[in-house]
C-alpha cells in the first residue's frame, strides 16, 4: 500500500514546484512534465498541424468510408474514442477545475487541447502503421502495446511479448476496471439525487443493459454509433440555447476567462498557480492525448492512409475539450456565483442547470451523465480487446472473463465508492501515459513521414 501511494504521488503529485509572484506556486506533476513538452515538440514537428490542417481534419472525418469486414470506418473510430474522451470528466471534471482555478482555468484547458491534438495525431498514426489483423472480432487491432512491441522486439524474433508493451497493456486493463467502478458510482449517485432511486435499482439496470451490449460480438460499435452523436448533440444544443438566452453576459464571461488566466488579481491573491495547474491538468487528461487509449480505436479503422487516422483523432481532441468541455464551462460561468458558492461536483452542476432550465435541468444532467458514462464503459471495453489479446492470446475465454470482471466492477461501484479502486484507475492511466510516451518520441519520425507522404500524394481537396 505504501508503494502504491508512492507511485500515485510520483505520477500525480507535484514533482516540481515553481514559485510565482504574489506568493503562489505552480506545481507540475510528472505527467504534465512529460505531456506538455512532448505536445509542443510534436506541434512544431508537424508544422502546427492543429491550425494548418484543421479543415482537412473535418474533410477526412466526413469521407464516405463505411465499415466492413475489413474493420470499422475512420468516423466510427472517432465515435469510439469520443465515447471515452467525452465522459463524466467533461461534466464533473470541468466543474472541479473552475471551482479550484476560477474562470481562467478554461483558457489553459483550451491551450492544452491545441497542444494535445498533435500528440493525438502521432499516436493514432503509429497505431495505424503497426496494426494487425484481428482473428477474433474481424478487421484490425493495435495500439501502444503493438508499436511498443515493434520498437523493442527485433524483426524476425520469436519473442511473443515485450516487457514494456505487456506493462502498457496491463496498466490499461487495470485503469479501465477502475474507471468501471467510478462510472457505476457516478451514475447511481446522480440518479439518486435526481430521481430518488435507490442505488441498487439503477445499478442493476445499468449492468444488465451493459452486459447485453458488451457480451455480444461487435455490438459495441453499433450502439455507440447511435448513442454518442445523440448525447453530444443534445448537450451541445442545450448549451447553445443557454448561451443564446444569456448572450448579453458573454463579453463579461470571456473577459473573465482571459483576464483570470493571466490576471493581476490572481497574481496578487496567490491564485495564479491554481488557475494554470487546474486548467492544464483538466485539458490534458480530459482529451487523453498521449495516454495511449485512443490509438486502440484508431488502429481498428479500415482507412486508406495512416495519416488520415491521425487527423481524425486530432479532431477528437478538439471535440472533447474545445466543444464539450467548453459547454460545461459556459453553463457554470453563466450562473450567478451566489447560487453556486460552497457547492462542488454534481451538486454544483445540477444547481447551475436548474437555474437555466428549471427542474428539467437537474433531470437533463442526470440523463446526459448516464449516456456519457455508459458510452465511456462501452468504449473502454472496446479498447481492452487488443490489450487482452496481446497479453493472453487470441481466445474468447480471456476476452469474456475481462468483460465479466469489468461488469462486476461496474456493479460494485454502483453500490459503494472505494477510494483505492479510484486511485488504481488514476495510477493505471498514469502508467499508460509513461509507457506510451517511451514509444512516441523514437517512433515519431514514422508518423511524420506518413504526414509528409499524405500531404504530397493525397493533397487536401
From TrEMBL:
> Which spans are transmembrane here?
20-44, 77-101, 163-183, 195-214, 226-244, 314-339, 360-384, 404-422, 429-451
Q: Which PROSITE patterns match?
A: NA_ALANINE_SYMP
- What keyword terms does UniProt attach to this protein? Cell membrane, Membrane, Symport, Transmembrane, Transmembrane helix, Transport
Annotated InterPro entries: Na/Ala_symport (IPR001463)
One Pfam family per UniProt = Na_Ala_symp
Q: Which family does it belong to?
A: Belongs to the alanine or glycine:cation symporter (AGCS) (TC 2.A.25) family.
Q: What is this entry's stated membrane topology?
A: Multi-pass membrane protein
Source organism per UniProt: Gemmiger gallinarum
Q: What is its main location?
A: membrane
Q: What is this protein identified as?
A: Alanine:cation symporter family protein
Compartments where located: Cell membrane
Amino acid at each position: 500500500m505504501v508503494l502504491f501511494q508512492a507511485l500515485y504521488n510520483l505520477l500525480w503529485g507535484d514533482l516540481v514546484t515553481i514559485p510565482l509572484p504574489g506568493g503562489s506556486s505552480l506545481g507540475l506533476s510528472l505527467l504534465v512534465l512529460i505531456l506538455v513538452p512532448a505536445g509542443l515538440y510534436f506541434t512544431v514537428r508537424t508544422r502546427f498541424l492543429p491550425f494548418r490542417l484543421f479543415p482537412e481534419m473535418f474533410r477526412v472525418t466526413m469521407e464516405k468510408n463505411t465499415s466492413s469486414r475489413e474493420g470499422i470506418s475512420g468516423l466510427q473510430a472517432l465515435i469510439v474514442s469520443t465515447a471515452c474522451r467525452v465522459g463524466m470528466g467533461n461534466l464533473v471534471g470541468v466543474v472541479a477545475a473552475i471551482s479550484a482555478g476560477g474562470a481562467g482555468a478554461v483558457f489553459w484547458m483550451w491551450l492544452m487541447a491545441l497542444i494535445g491534438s498533435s500528440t493525438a495525431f502521432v499516436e493514432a498514426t503509429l497505431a495505424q502503421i503497426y496494426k494487425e489483423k484481428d482473428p477474433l472480432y474481424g478487421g484490425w487491432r493495435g495500439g501502444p502495446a503493438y508499436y511498443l512491441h515493434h520498437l523493442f522486439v527485433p524483426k524476425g524474433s520469436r519473442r511473443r511479448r515485450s516487457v514494456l508493451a505487456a506493462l502498457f497493456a496491463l496498466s490499461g486493463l487495470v485503469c479501465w476496471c477502475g474507471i468501471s467502478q467510478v462510472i457505476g458510482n457516478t451514475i447511481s449517485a446522480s440518479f439518486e439525487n435526481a430521481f430518488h432511486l435507490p442505488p441498487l435499482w439503477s445499478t442493476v439496470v445499468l449492468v444488465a443493459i451493459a452486459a447485453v451490449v458488451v457480451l455480444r460480438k461487435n455490438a459495441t460499435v453499433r450502439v455507440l454509433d447511435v448513442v454518442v452523436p445523440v448525447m453530444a448533440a443534445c448537450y451541445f444544443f442545450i448549451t447553445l440555447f443557454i448561451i443564446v438566452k444569456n448572450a448579453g453576459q458573454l463579453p463579461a464571461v470571456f473577459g473573465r476567462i482571459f483576464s483570470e488566466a493571466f490576471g493581476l488579481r490572481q497574481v496578487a491573491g496567490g491564485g495564479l498557480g491554481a488557475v494554470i495547474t487546474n486548467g492544464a491538468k483538466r485539458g490534458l487528461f480530459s482529451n487523453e492525448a498521449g495516454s495511449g487509449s485512443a490509438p486502440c480505436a484508431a488502429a481498428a479503422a479500415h482507412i486508406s492512409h495512416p495519416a488520415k487516422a491521425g487527423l481524425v483523432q486530432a479532431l477528437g481532441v478538439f471535440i472533447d475539450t474545445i466543444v464539450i468541455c467548453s459547454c460545461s464551462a459556459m453553463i457554470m460561468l453563466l450562473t450567478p456565483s451566489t447560487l453556486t458558492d460552497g457547492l462542488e461536483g454534481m451538486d454544483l452542476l445540477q444547481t447551475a442547470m436548474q437555474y437555466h432550465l428549471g427542474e428539467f435541468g437537474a433531470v437533463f444532467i442526470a440523463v446526459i451523465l448516464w449516456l456519457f458514462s455508459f458510452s465511456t464503459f462501452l468504449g473502454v471495453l472496446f479498447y481492452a480487446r487488443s490489450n487482452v489479446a496481446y497479453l493472453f492470446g487470441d481466445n474468447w475465454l480471456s476476452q469474456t472473463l475481462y468483460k465479466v470482471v469489468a461488469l462486476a466492477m461496474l456493479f460494485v461501484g454502483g453500490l459503494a465508492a472505494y477510494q483505492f479502486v479510484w486511485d488504481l484507475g488514476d495510477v493505471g492511466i498514469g502508467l499508460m501515459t509513461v509507457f506510451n510516451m517511451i514509444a512516441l518520441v523514437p517512433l515519431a519520425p514514422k508518423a511524420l513521414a506518413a504526414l509528409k507522404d499524405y500531404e504530397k500524394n493525397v493533397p487536401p481537396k
